[in-house]
């Protein structure tokens, strides 16, 4: 009897040992699986973190660039200035920012005056002129002033110097000068701040550009430039020089700057953007073969 009970206890013990062994093995497998899953999760997090740091989850940069404003147009109150003319505003996005656009100014003074508008340095000024030209803003207006700096001032339908569109925009390409003091004299041999043939915007006050522009018929050097450059004359500079030589009369404010003979812009047009070989690379103002 005693031996029989001993065998039963031994068998029960062996069964218990086998169950404990199976449970221990299962526990080890479960821990191995959990450890593997944890390691995989850590690896995924490391890869995802690296990808995020490198910008893999950023939105398409082309889409961001396309969504950015190239130019900003500040509204102007036409009720406060009756000389302003509402013809809408240019686009703010998707404007060309490289190459040039050809501008042609036809006046009653001779052959057309042609210029290249610089889209790289002055995209907003060029966009504004192109927009206004597309609305015939400049057509049949007068160049109302021959300035003391040696430039023809145009682009104001009112002829008062106060006219323009119902928006304004900031300065872009204002020339820099090496002199540290605006009151100092220009250094000898220094290139002119505004070479003959320069096309620049003009506004009052400076920095609130609209439609008015200058075409320089002689070199002008200053230590305090205020006119942002938009382009360069490529043809008809002799016509501009001829207009610059016209006698002037009082403009009604006591300033003897109004051309005695009316200088009328019959039309002003702006062509499509040109880049690379299609754009002129000479950079030098050219004279028209025939002056009217």
TrEMBL record:
Which portions of the sequence form the region Disordered?
Answer: 270-292
Keyword Ribosomal protein found: no
User: Where is the sequence biased in composition, kind Low complexity?
Assistant: 273-292
Q: Which Pfam families match?
A: Pro_isomerase (PF00160)
Please name the SUPFAM superfamilies in this protein's record.
Cyclophilin-like
- Which key words are in the record? Isomerase
Q: Where is the PPIase cyclophilin-type domain?
A: 100-270
User: Function, please?
Assistant: PPIases accelerate the folding of proteins. It catalyzes the cis-trans isomerization of proline imidic peptide bonds in oligopeptides.
This protein is called what? Peptidylprolyl isomerase
Query: What organism is the protein native to?
Result: Micromonospora orduensis
């Amino acid at each position: 009897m005693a031996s029989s009970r001993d065998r039963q206890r031994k068998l029960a013990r062996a069964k218990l040992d086998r169950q404990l062994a199976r449970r221990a093995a299962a526990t080890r497998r479960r821990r191995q699986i959990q450890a593997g899953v944890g390691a995989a999760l850590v690896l995924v997090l490391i890869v995802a973190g690296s990808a995020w740091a490198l910008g893999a989850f950023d939105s398409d940069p082309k889409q961001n660039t396309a969504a950015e404003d190239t130019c900003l147009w500040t509204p102007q109150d036409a009720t406060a200035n009756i000389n302003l003319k509402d013809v809408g505003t240019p686009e703010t996005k998707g404007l060309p920012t490289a190459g040039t656009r050809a501008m042609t100014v036809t006046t009653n003074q001779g052959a057309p005056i042609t210029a290249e508008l610089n889209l790289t340095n002055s995209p907003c000024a060029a966009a504004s002129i192109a927009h206004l030209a597309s609305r015939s803003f400049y057509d049949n207006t007068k160049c109302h002033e021959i300035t003391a700096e040696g430039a023809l001032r145009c682009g104001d339908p009112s002829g008062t110097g106060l006219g323009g569109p119902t928006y304004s925009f900031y300065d872009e390409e204002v020339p820099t000068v090496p002199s540290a003091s605006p009151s100092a004299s220009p250094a000898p041999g220094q290139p002119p701040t505004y070479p003959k043939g320069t096309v620049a915007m003009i506004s009052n006050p400076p920095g609130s550009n609209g439609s008015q522009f200058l075409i320089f018929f002689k070199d002008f050097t200053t230590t305090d430039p205020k006119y942002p450059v938009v382009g360069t004359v490529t043809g008809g500079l002799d016509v501009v020089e001829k207009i610059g030589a016209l006698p002037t009369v009082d403009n009604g404010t006591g300033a003897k700057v109004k051309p005695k003979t009316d200088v009328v812009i019959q039309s002003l047009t702006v062509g499509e953007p040109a880049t690379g070989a299609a754009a002129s690379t000479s950079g030098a103002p050219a004279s028209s073969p025939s002056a009217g």
